[in-house]
Amino acid sequence: MTKKMIKPYLLLSVIAFVMCLMGSFNVVGQADNNEQNEDAIAGSLEVKTIIPENQRDKTKTYFDLLMSAGTEQVIQVELKNTSQKEDIVAVIQINDATTNNNGTVEYTKSEKRDSTLKVGISDLVRTDSEVVIPANQTKTLFIQITMPTEKLDGVLLGGIVISEEKQRALNEKKSTGTTVINKFAYTIGLLLTENEKEAEAKLKLTTVTIGKVNYRKFIKANIQNTQPVIIKDMMIEAKIYLKEGKEIFFTQTSENINMAPNSNFDYLISMEKNEFPAGNYILEVKAKNGEKEWTMEKEFTIVEKENKKLNETTNQLEATSSRKLIFYIVLLLFILWSINWKNRNRRKK
Predict the structure, then answer these.
(1) Domain 44-193 fold
(2) pLDDT for 205-247, tens place per residue?
(3) Structure letter (DSSP) for residue 228
(4) Does pLDDT of 14 surpass 60?
(5) What is the spatial distance between Cα 288 and Cα 295, in angstroms, rounded to a whole number?
(6) What is the number of other CB atoms lying within 10 angstroms of the CB of residue 155?
(7) Whole-angstrom distance, CA of residue 94 vs CA of residue 145
(8) What would the CATH number be for the domain defined by 203-302?
């Protein structure tokens, strides 16, 4: 085997090595992408909103409704099964809008409601939990809205989440008691207001703690939007001071933060690249949204015992990753040695 012939083997070995690394360290991301691709191909459900007369902006395909206190209204969504052979089941959830730790508004079901949200979309909206749609047919989903009798300044925000299940999968779930994961879903925003008056946004820094997210250490600054108003495109600058001397210890800036009305999220400050010794600190958070600015401050303490425990867990994760990396390097070297050994034997022959 000549040197020119060896090169393709070396290239294949390197490619195999890189693929092993990707498979080892990015399994979750790959699985998520594959599920999304399968959904796009396999989904038979199509959803269309029927926009009513009291829609504030008729160019929008989500519901943005102006209603009066104590009134009721039925809105409609068309559900179409594009499959020519198989019935499907549309599974419906009504969820309140929340803010995730990335600073993004989302409509997944939350187990814990924000303390400032007294009445949410999920309290006011009722509809069927399941609708069977025969093959190649369309059905209308009727959604009942009942506004609270108390005056509402600001907005209520939630989502109508409609996911698809195959009829046979649903029958199997009911007969065996197993859980079927809904892979294909639509989310329709539902925004309710009683007047055009916008509530004044107010932010609150509720707690500052340290902890782990996805096995990584963070300082978690819980920021709460206490008012029924959507906050868009917010910039946050966090500064951490040593309590003694007011010396700036760390700074972090984030942009394009959005918050749902009456919601909270943990603004995450990474502790990975900076060593935070045990001691007393002050966190100052400045948030800006256009002309509106908020400044919040709170003291927090990093306890030596807690910090050490978090470091040990993080070190264990890093050690595991290092062992995997060493394994694949050894594997690559073995492959290259095997190719070289075979090449030498063939030359001798």
Answers:
(1) Immunoglobulin-like (2.60.40)
(2) 999 998 888 878 899 999 999 999 999 999 999 999 988 877 8
(3) S
(4) no
(5) 9
(6) 20
(7) 11
(8) 2.60.40.10
